[in-house]
Amino acid sequence: MVDDKVEMNNDGESYSSLNTSDPKNVQELTQYVQSLLQTIQDKFQNMSDQILTRIDEMGNRIDDLEKNIGDLMTQAGVEGTDK
Predict the structure, then answer these.
(1) Which stretch of DSSP H or E encloses residue 50?
(2) 24, 36, 44, 66: which is deepest, by most CB within 10 A?
(3) Residue 20: what pLDDT?
């Protein structure tokens, strides 16, 4: 017997948990597993995209900070040292 239960994950999204101890058929189980793997892949891709966006934003902030420090050093009359 296949037992579908709806549960909540940490993000408040619902998902089905499937008790596969007695699936109706192999095709049904295969479709469920493929769907689950696709969902996991989609979420992983989404998180990867978010991480890359944040890294790009951090790089831009660092560039701005370096520019501002250089401007402040120029205003203070301090020469930058390039080694």
Answers:
(1) helix 26-76
(2) 36
(3) 45
Question: What's the average pLDDT block by block, 10 residues per block, for the chain (83 residues)?
Answer: 51 52 81 95 98 98 97 86 54
Contact 38, 30 (CB under 8 A): no
Phi, psi values for residue 6, rounded to 5°: -100, 125
- String of DSSP letters for 3-23: EEEEEE-TTS-EEEEEETTS-
What span, in angstroms and rounded, lies between the C-alpha atoms of 33 and 23? 12
- Full-model pTM: 0.57
Find out whether 52 and 38 touch, Cβ atoms under 8 Å: no
Cα distance between residue 1 and residue 28, in whole Å: 12
Structure token digits, residue 23: 């699936």
- SS3 state at 1: coil
